[in-house]
UniProtKB/TrEMBL annotation:
Organism domain of life: Eukaryota
Keywords, alphabetical: G-protein coupled receptor, Glycoprotein, Membrane, Receptor, Sensory transduction, Taste, Transducer, Transmembrane, Transmembrane helix
Organism: Peromyscus maniculatus bairdii
A cellular-component GO term for this protein: membrane
Family: Belongs to the G-protein coupled receptor T2R family.
Protein name, entry field: Taste receptor type 2
Amino acid sequence: MAGIISTVLQVTLITIVSVEFIIGSLGNAFMAVVNIVDWVKRGKISAVDQILTALAISRTAFLFMLITSLLVTLLDPVSVEKRIIMHTISWTVTNHFSVWLATCLSIFYFLKIANFSNSVFLALKRKAKKVVSMTLVVSLIILFLNIIVINILCGRPKVNTLYWYSSNNTLKVYAIFLFTNTMFILIPFTVTLITFLLLIFSLWRHLRNMQYNAEGFQDVSTAAHIKSLQSIVTFLLLYTVFVMSLLLQSWNISFQQKNLIVMVLRSTGIAFPSVHTCVLILGNGKLRQASLSMLWWLRCKYKYTEN
């Protein structure tokens, strides 16, 4: 009976992961293609579209890394311990850009929408593109440090290869890898949380000032604040779930004894780059219109095929 339940749960989790992977892959590919086609037509691309395109590409790569790791764990749990270290650097790089580009998007929205009279903020607001570029440069430095720390903590001892490839030791190394990456991605999480709190404060000041102005005078600004807040809140919630899944994986790292737990945690983690992309598409006017046009085209083609 327990075996049947375990099999049913595995099939359910595989189905959920497959759906998340398909939605994430199609959503990110759609976002990248629409922005690139628009770029070719217009001969230029906005800063937001640049970030969204880079984010879509990085998340596509990250999703393929996640699904590859999960399939290896599921289909060949015995040899996964010997192969898992091969994925660490690729996982780190794709995850890094996926998270930091989303953070840059939050920073850009914050600088463009928030209203503060502080001279430093106004200077940053005027140079929003440069701020985002500098954030990416800083993130590259953090990525470099992250890789160095991983190599130091998870480096293979040359004197005893058999010990390094032993079951317990390899799993401990992978647990350290997960925990180290989680600590490093808390940095962009903190940055996004700060922008979220500052955006709430900006909205509060804006609503308070509206009491002294004509009704509806700054409704556009209010709508922009709320729209940006919705996007950042979704990002933070999914990001929190993703971070917690990584931490729990590093604490429950025995693949052979807790394979089902690992699958649950990883299926939860895949929701971050998949669902957030859908939220970004629905929150962007151009992408939302393009998605509706594509759905209408598919509907018409399906009806034509039936007839």
